[in-house]
Structures are given as structure tokens and as C-alpha cells.
Write a structure and sequence with these properties.
290 residues, two-stranded antiparallel ribbon, Rossmann fold, alpha/beta, SAM-dependent_MTases_sf, globular, eight-stranded mixed sheet, 10 helices, binds S-adenosylmethionine, 10 strands
Length: 290
């Protein structure tokens, strides 16, 4: 386990992933009934943008740095601005005043958006990271931090007793076979908790691989699979993180139209060259039975 998210926190992929996450949570809050978020690969929860690790890559400057600059300069359209409000709200909640020096990882972002009836289970396998995360949420009865293989949560921890909620699966993709594990994990989890919303993150590096992933997802027969991708540059000759993808199963009915507003805005803000693009498509829609 060599992957350390501190080098990448707040980069373009985090921005897109966390904006989607915040939109899903915002929707779940429309009903009074409690929900649970299960975050299978949680990380350490909070990242210092002035840390040595963040400084080494400077990735956050091409991600959250650009969004904050656009917000300051009034370059975000009013409709996108409204949809970004919960995301910005979570960032504000971990910073004092206007200056942003801390960036919330997925469990912290979720936590900042929960109501008092809602719960979070955050799993992290790296012992040091799990300990940091546990310390971060010590005494918080709404959050359970578990040092465990997140893939196991897709079996044992579902369905949640709230019977409503979101499962975020955000693996580091440092070993072979993560795309297949995502498909198998989803199939297993969906059998136990078919009404849940699932958000599966994946890197866009190799088109053949992402197409194969989409085919495999379709073959599960699971309905309502929405695919969201954003590439910040034209495909690189060598494998490189050119884009970010999210599969959302059972998305809120509002998500597709929201992403039609957000994706063009995020593309313009995050683009590194004029090969930047986005796509939004149903791998399987509600009515598609083929
Ligand atoms: N979800 C986080 C966020 O958005 O802020 C980032 C997570 S990072 C991409 C992946 C994390 O998964 C790392 O912290 C890594 O230590 C952890 N990890 C790797 N393998 C794991 C496993 N099998 N189960 C749980 N966590 C794992």
C-alpha cells in the first residue's frame, strides 16, 4: 500500500468526485428519513494544502485552486454556483475565514453535510491512515471509523440499518484488476442493498480499459447506471491521469440534469488544453432491459 492521497488531495479528480458526492448527499437530505454513507476507501479525512506532500505535486492548484480563483473572480455562472454550494460549504467548514488551507477528503466532506439523524461508516485499510481518521472523528457518535479492507464492506456492511444511503468506492488503483474488483464488488453489494446509491470512482487513463469496464458493468444487468467522465486534456501518449470518471448506480433523479450544468463549467475551469471534454451517458437506463 504505497498510495498516499496527501499528494493528490484537491486535484481535479477530487474536485469532480467531491462535487458529485455533495450533490448526492444534498438529494438524500430532501427526505427526513435518516441515511448512511459507507465510504469504503476513506483516506485520512483532512488534507493540509501547505504540506510537503501537497507542495511536491502542486496538484491541488489545478483543481480546487482553480475553482476558488473562479469563485473569487465571479467566473462561475449562477446556476452552477447554486449547485456547488454544498461542496463549498463543506470546504468552508474546515477552514477559518476566507483563506483555504485545508481540503476535506470524502469522509470529512460527507460529515460536514450530514444532519443529526444521518450516519457515516468510513473504512480505511492503511493502519496509520485509519488511526488518523479515527482520531479525527473521536467522540463523534455519527461516525464509525473501521480499519478494514473496504472491499469487505460491500458484503458484510450492507444493507445499512437505515435502509437508505450511499456507498462510495474510491480505490487507489495501485494494483492490477481494480476495474474488475469494482464490477464484482458492485454486483455483490447490489444483491444485498439494491435500493442504495453507489458511486464508484475510476481513473481515465486508457480508453480501452474504461470501455471494457463500461461493458462489464452493463453485463451485470443492474439498471440505472450513469457514467460521468471529465478529461482535462487530450489523451496522453503515455498512460497518465488525463481524466476522472464516476459511475453512479441509482443516481438521484436530479443528478443527470445537474451534471449537464456542472460538467461544462468544471471542464472550462479545469481544462489543461483544448482536448478537454466531458461525457454523461447511461450505461444502462431504468427502462433498458436488453
Ligand atoms: N476517498 C478519499 C477521498 O475522496 O478523500 C480518497 C481515498 S484514496 C483515493 C484511497 C485510499 O484507500 C487510501 O487512503 C488507501 O490507503 C486506502 N486503501 C487502499 N486499499 C484499501 C482497501 N483494500 N480497503 C480500504 N482502504 C484501502
Amino acid at each position: 500500500m504505497n498510495y498516499r492521497h496527501a499528494y493528490h488531495a484537491g486535484n481535479f479528480a477530487d474536485v469532480v468526485k467531491h462535487v458529485i458526492l455533495a450533490r448526492i448527499i444534498d438529494y438524500l437530505k430532501r427526505k427526513e428519513q435518516a441515511f448512511r454513507v459507507v465510504d469504503t476507501h476513506a483516506g485520512i479525512g483532512l488534507y493540509d494544502l501547505n504540506s510537503v506532500e501537497a507542495g511536491k505535486t502542486g496538484e491541488w492548484m489545478g483543481g480546487i485552486g482553480r475553482l476558488l480563483a473562479a469563485r473569487r473572480d465571479g467566473r462561475i455562472s449562477a446556476d452552477a454556483f447554486d449547485l456547488l454550494a454544498p461542496y463549498f460549504e463543506a470546504i468552508a467548514a474546515v477552514n477559518e475565514g476566507e483563506t483555504v488551507t485545508s481540503y476535506p477528503g470524502s469522509p470529512m466532506l460527507v460529515r460536514k453535510l450530514l444532519r443529526k439523524q444521518d450516519r457515516l461508516s468510513a473504512l480505511e485499510l492503511h493502519p496509520q491512515d485509519a488511526a488518523m481518521l479515527a482520531k479525527r472523528f473521536a467522540g463523534d457518535f455519527q461516525v464509525r471509523v473501521i480499519e478494514l479492507d473496504g472491499w469487505l464492506a460491500l458484503g458484510a456492511h450492507l444493507p445499512p440499518k437505515e435502509k437508505r444511503g450511499l456507498v462510495l468506492v474510491d480505490p487507489p488503483f495501485e494494483v492490477e484488476g481494480e476495474f474488475d474488483r469494482l464490477v464484482e464488488g458492485l454486483a455483490k453489494a447490489h444483491k444485498r442493498f439494491s435500493g442504495g446509491t453507489y458511486a464508484l470512482w475510476y481513473p481515465v487513463k486508457d480508453r480501452r480499459e474504461t470501455e471494457r469496464f463500461a461493458r462489464k458493468l452493463r453485463e451485470t444487468g443492474i439498471a440505472k447506471i450513469l457514467q460521468i467522465e471529465l478529461a482535462i486534456r487530450a489523451p496522453s501518449p503515455e498512460p497518465r491521469l488525463d481524466g476522472t470518471g464516476m459511475i453512479v448506480v441509482n443516481p438521484p433523479f436530479t443528478l443527470e440534469s445537474e451534471m449537464k450544468i456542472l460538467l461544462p463549467c468544471l471542464k472550462d475551469l479545469l481544462a489543461e488544453d483544448n482536448g478537454a471534454n466531458f461525457s454523461l451517458r447511461w450505461i444502462r437506463s431504468e427502462t433498458d432491459r436488453s
